[in-house]
């Protein structure tokens, strides 16, 4: 650095390396310079950097004397928001600090420091062993890792601010979004730091780098400038001045679209994993990070993903990075980099433009190139439907991605060269093959390692197109390369020796394909036989919508199904893909002589969500001064201004100004609030108490209007409202749907509007067909404040509903069902009352649409569109009759002529007869009684026309503890086969069927596992395994299989029952609330073995609100 540079030019990066020795300070400012030069360099730096070291000189604070909205405190026309030049001041770094968040943020800081302390004291050889982290002893040798110590010192020096992140900082935006406009109290601080145009980067070894901010510069540019080693980091966390956090890529292999860091941003760059650690970090038990040695004198640490995310969250509470004084970082080595140096380094990396890599389906529906798969996968929750044609094959593909490491797909493949059967049997229908594919990612890409996946095509089918592969994919910017080995149909070229032959000569040959009935796992053929090399490249052109593909095909097409031979002029296939939103159109040339075309449509089903624009407008939530009922004791420090309620209680809600929210806001503003104990006394001895005067009950409640509004707001039925002391106990029935939080909030809005101010708590009981499910307790005051203003995370928790068991009426009569608050003075009954809502209509009905289809049979594609009429008659509590009639209005089932053969009682293979005998049918006519016999015990009894093929009687018992991951159920049914016209007559066949079923919410990836054992409709006995993955919006993806004592030969084609399904709630894509769900089930064949009764109301489904997943979704979504 030149000594004579002008001060204006010495805007530079400041790199700080924390040292543990407080008594020494290294002065290696610039290694190649003399000490005198370094000291001279400090003079202009100090002059030009004074604003960085003293940010308080420029910080603007807002004076908050009384509680008011932030939009009012800031003031949209506040002259202080203008700079000296009259321009609008930048409010991006606006900081709202509140005492109520101090405790939680201190806890987060302590957890970060404890993590580093634990990591530092683990011996290197046990660094990846979580047991070593959890079971250390005093005799464990300490590993002195300077990087960890440096980072600990940095974190220790950062203050706990109590900052609450804001959704926006424009006072005009806040004014028109009052629910996001916080109420600032006199105990809070609100300040707007002035921009200093720097970015602060913290590295994994604890070094801190302060860099001049430049527009349109990505995080990777700042990282390269500050790096002093050959190790290139792969990921960074960018924390903007407003607290927004984003994990961004820093390399070409993981490049993704990202935002630029703004002035005042923090950038956290953890140490990248090297060598074998890139593999070990992916092991499921390695969640704690590790410490390593990189030669004499230098040691560093790897940090877990959770630590990085938590550290980023803590940095978000600091506000703009240039507001943290450099002097707070203890002692440091300082190295200066001038602007001109920064510009030169930036010029060398300006070409880095991070963008997402396209994930495109192959001809076979799996993510890949054309004929060959890759190791790439769609995001979890995605689904894909596609069609491709390459003469003579046409493929209809459907793919599901339940996890980010697992891809499942199924397809129907038409072979245009082969007829399905004789003309008098199937007409001109070509042969259709049905298959299921599976692809599992076993290794995730890093800077050195590729994505690696293992896949099986036609997992348990006829074997006509079966094959296996191991493939790796590695990305370099716009190029995504893939290479691997293939067996079976994928590797028919056989130009590579099978590497598995080292395990035995049997791997060198592959048994001939047995078309047969399919359905069995062919373990003797997987990864057997000749092997072929496959691979290729996908190139993202400069045109965002255009992608090119080139591949080496592993198939030579000389051993096609049914002994066909296809001419191949070249093993090189190529194509071009035009991508438009969620659709891809691919055209190309394969086999060197054949044109191909495919189209695919995909979407992430787990992200589906549509605003309910067609619903009734939500009831406005107004501030109401909540006061306690007469003779109640409260603790003064919960609401120190409660004695001022009388001064505002008579003010109409519409006239309450924004600053009157101080009364309720004070309740939420004490970090150490004490609550009333269960015994009715004061939880903290010596706490002061006050007695409030009587508050008259609001006698103007119109229960009919409340009932009507709750129905219009949620679709649910109000049963009754009971007031017990300070609680409203509200009972709701007909509770259905998926997006429950919004519906529940709408219900509480009605209750808040109608309840007297003496009511401080809502206890809401949820029922379905009078079957008690759960109850939720709401702190009315906290709920109100959360819905009229923005609260910090700690305060928001007070507004969350507390879920508890809803006992049956028999048990509830012998228990106290009053809430904690109502136990203060149980002898006070003067405000208690019970209001019954108007009786519900006993007879209800509606019209719906039904759709059914049959694919893959000799009669081609068959479908039926029907009009459904439904009716429900309520008998007494928990008892009702439901009837469904169906009229086929549009169909082609007149072409349905195929009767599947069967070696078992024809319990399901009479499908054609049931679908074609009558256009007007009665699929269901069933009477049902449900009851809750005790805590967690549910019972149902039913009888009638239970489904389209069977009628009879049955019963079920379910044990399902609230919030438990486990449940157990037993059902038993005596049924008889219905006549084909689906009216009221029966055939001769009858059977007793039932199962014992265990349910397990695994707690891993929201997976539900169900295993049932019992007797099926054909009299066979066995078990069914069903595994499904649930997403936060209610979408489910799952698969099942059934094995019984029926052999594959007896079962027939398919060998055993199996299927894949996806269910999508209508709530996810309709603009109006809906209780219905669309389920797409792919079942290769309908056979008689392993067939279950399709019961209308399984108790596990009826008690869905007690579901462990649902409760978490309700409280945490």
Automatic annotation (TrEMBL):
Residues 814-824 have a biased composition (Low complexity). Coiled coil: none annotated. Pfam families: Caps_syn_GfcC_C, YjbH. Residues 232-283 form the Capsule biosynthesis GfcC-like C-terminal domain. InterPro entries: Caps_synth_GfcC-like_C, YbjH. Residues 814-833 are annotated as: Disordered. This is Capsule biosynthesis GfcC. It comes from Polynucleobacter kasalickyi. The lineage of its organism: Bacteria, Pseudomonadati, Pseudomonadota, Betaproteobacteria, Burkholderiales.
